[in-house]
Design a protein that fits this description.
With 142 residues, this protein is of the alpha+beta class. The chain has one domain (2-132): START domain (Alpha-D-Glucose-1,6-Bisphosphate, Chain A, domain 4), CATH 3.30.530. The chain has helices at residues 14-22, 24-30, 109-131; strands spanning 2-10, 34-36, 44-48, 54-63, 67-74, 83-91, 94-104. A seven-stranded antiparallel sheet has the order 1-7-6-5-4-3-2, with helices on one face. Strand 4 and strand 5 (67-74) form a beta hairpin. Helix 1 packs across helix 2. It is globular and about 40 Å long. It comes from Paenibacillus pasadenensis. It holds the Pfam family AHSA1. InterPro entries: ASHA1/2-like_C (IPR013538), START-like_dom_sf (IPR023393).
């Protein structure tokens, strides 16, 4: 199985990053403004991108300021069954984020496209946390 893995460092405390990744306000600024977001393990987030297919992520783990784990239960067939994790570690007011999307069945063109888009997601997260404005799907020009 293949995994996607990225590292990003932001110049804010882990609590700021955690809030951005676990609230509708944060995720709408980072990823897409077409969403339904929850704050409880076992519930399902819903994300849409320009009216296209629905992506559903079950919240499997929430450890405040440390870890977020989602499991894809509905989306593009290549995403279903993958797990997305965000691991946060803070040192001197800076937070490192390790993002992983694990358990891809194979490396395909879609996998490669998603790899690129996760990097953009982390860029958007950094911009939002440090500057107050991210680059979500609906604002992208590319």
């Amino acid at each position: 199985m293949a995994n996607i893995e990225h590292l990003q460092t932001v110049n804010v405390p882990a609590s700021t990053v955690y809030e951005a990744l676990t609230t509708a306000k944060g995720l709408s600024e980072i990823w897409t403004n077409e969403l339904v977001v929850h704050d409880q393990v076992g519930l399902i987030h819903e994300f849409r991108f320009g009216g296209e297919g629905l992506t559903k992520m079950r919240i499997d783990e929430l450890v405040a300021d440390k870890k977020i784990l989602w499991h894809c239960v509905d989306s593009d067939p290549e995403w279903i069954g993958t797990t997305i994790s965000f691991e946060l570690s803070e040192k001197n007011g800076r937070t490192s984020i390790v993002l992983r999307q694990m358990d891809w069945k194979e490396v395909t063109a879609f996998y490669r496209s998603c790899n690129y888009n996760w990097a953009i997601f982390l860029y958007s997260l950094k911009q939002y946390c440090e500057e107050g404005e991210g680059l979500p799907y609906h604002k992208r020009k590319f």
